[in-house]
Specification:
405 residues; alpha/beta; Urease, subunit C, domain 1; TIM Barrel; 2 domains; 8-stranded parallel β-sheet; 19 strands; globular; binds fe (iii) ion; imidazolonepropionase activity
């Protein structure tokens, strides 16, 4: 008895499954993409039903007139990329936004959704099928809720899967500069409970940095979020060693992101507690900084690593996880296989989606990318060029031949 397949991808030169282990990959495990030569994937009802050598997969499933078969001869096939750190939803750019606020204008939710949709289309065309999206450009109860409601609307209507994060503590808004602790109190006592009441976020994040939020303030916000049942993330040590990574270890955050200035003791604390390092090389690159986060030290210390775009208007306006992979290799000395692990299965773990995304295994969402290259080793070579030819979400071809289908 063979199960009928809706979708068959066959004869991949390299099928990178990323399908070992139920915890984030560390150390040597990062370098094993789980390659199947002449590989195939079958899916039914949006879920993967079989993965393996083409011959074996074809024996285990049956084709019907409704089956879509994609020949991936000579090509690399990977899981859909997971972007675990973006600031997806904001209006215009910062200067404009600030002027708007001076004039008392709020965000229109409908405009936010339209802009978010165009950005998600670009990300999808570059092979990203799951995205974490932070609020944080509202900085008032009304505007933060509006951004998160727009995010929820995008999640319900776009092929890309969205993981929403509340980042009300992105910055102290200009009108609250005289009393930052008062703003922190509002985040803890007013904004967080409202966000949780509406079910608008899975994660809470804080920008922990001199000029933004101190360790003490960050601890207060993240502890309050944890008590309300949110999982935790933190922007840590981007511009200075501020203790953010250590705080992430103390609180058991799922990830600490940036880490350009994290001392090795604090990296060791992350490894010990299993906190994933969110690497954001696009920000280092675009800010013209020289010091990429020390990914090699992280791998050596056993810190799980994930790669992300940090898509945002100010410091990393790229949509492309392919660029994050290339910069992870060029700037941080990751190998292509390590970078792929960081951009798929480990990124999925970092956003709580490892049961659904990040690897090719039976039961998972059938999200995959068929590339215009033949091996994992080629992934960073054509930096700045979109090499994703076909993108499949939930077993449906959504981008084919580089175009939306
Ligand atoms: Fe960020």
């Amino acid at each position: 008895m063979t199960a009928p397949a809706d979708l068959l991808v066959v004869h991949a030169a390299e099928l990178a499954t990323l399908a070992t282990g139920s915890v984030p990959r560390r150390g040597a495990a990062l370098a094993d993409p789980g390659i199947v030569a002449d590989g195939a994937v079958a899916a039914s009802g949006g879920r993967i039903t079989a993965v393996g050598p083409t011959e074996a997969v074809l024996r285990s499933v049956s084709r019907t007139p409704a089956t879509t078969t994609v020949d991936a001869s000579g090509r690399l096939v990977t899981p859909g990329l997971v972007d675990p750190h973006t600031h997806l939803v904001f209006a215009g750019h910062r200067a404009q936004e600030f002027t708007m606020r001076l004039h008392g204008a709020g965000y229109a939710e409908i405009d936010l959704v339209a802009m978010g949709r165009r950005r998600l289309d670009r990300m999808l065309a570059h092979g990203t099928t799951t995205v974490e999206a932070k609020s944080g450009y509202g900085l008032s109860m009304a505007d933060e809720l509006k951004i998160l409601r727009a995010t929820a609307r995008l999640g319900a209507s776009h092929a890309v899967g969205i993981v929403p994060t509340f980042l009300g503590a992105h910055a102290v808004p200009p009108e609250r500069k005289a009393d930052p602790d008062g703003y922190v109190r509002d985040v803890c006592e007013l904004m967080l409970p409202a966000v949780v009441r509406e079910g608008l976020a899975e994660f809470c994040d804080v920008f922990c940095e001199r000029g933004a939020f101190s360790i003490e303030q960050s601890r207060r916000i993240l502890s309050a979020a944890g008590r309300l049942g949110l999982r935790l993330k933190i922007h840590a040590d981007q511009l200075s060693a501020s203790g953010g990574a250590r705080l992430a270890a103390e609180l058991g955050a799922l990830s600490a992101d940036h880490l350009e200035h994290t001392p090795s003791d604090d990296l060791a604390a992350m490894a010990e507690r299993g906190v994933t390092a969110g690497l954001l090389p696009g920000a280092t690159f675009f800010l013209l900084h020289q010091n990429y986060a020390d990914a090699r030290a992280m791998v050596e210390l056993g810190v799980p690593i994930a790669l992300a775009t940090d898509f945002n208007p100010g410091s990393s306006p790229t949509f492309s996880m392919q660029m994050a992979i290339a910069l992870g290799c060029i700037g941080m000395r990751l190998t292509p296989a390590e970078a792929l692990s960081a951009a798929t299965i480990n990124a999925a773990h970092a956003v709580g989606r490892a049961a659904d995304a990040g690897s090719l295994a039976p039961g998972k969402r059938a999200d995959l990318v068929i590339w215009g290259i033949s091996s994992v080793a080629e992934l960073p070579l054509h930096f700045g060029t979109n090499m994703a030819d076909t993108v499949i979400v939930d077993g449906r071809v959504v981008i084919g031949g580089g175009r939306t289908t």
